[in-house]
Amino acid sequence: MNNHILTTKNIKMRYEASTILEDVSIYVEYSDIYGLVGKNSSGKTTLIRILTGLIQNFNCNQFSCYYADGHHIRPLCF
Fold this sequence. Notes:
This protein is of the alpha+beta class and 78 residues long. The chain has helices at residues 44-52, 74-77, and strands at residues 4-15, 18-29, 62-65. The two termini are 23 Å apart.
């Protein structure tokens, strides 16, 4: 078992004609601390909204959330 508690592959998000996120992949390890930095209007808030389930209309090859013991908790993400 790997220690990933959050895995996303190739998130893509568009608003009308603008691409907000393009092929964003994230692997969050249990007990690690992460930061999300970037320029204004670079998609940080959109990414957090996708990860927390506030935005559900996006394209993604894989989106999985897990407890540290490996139990799948996708309903908490969406």
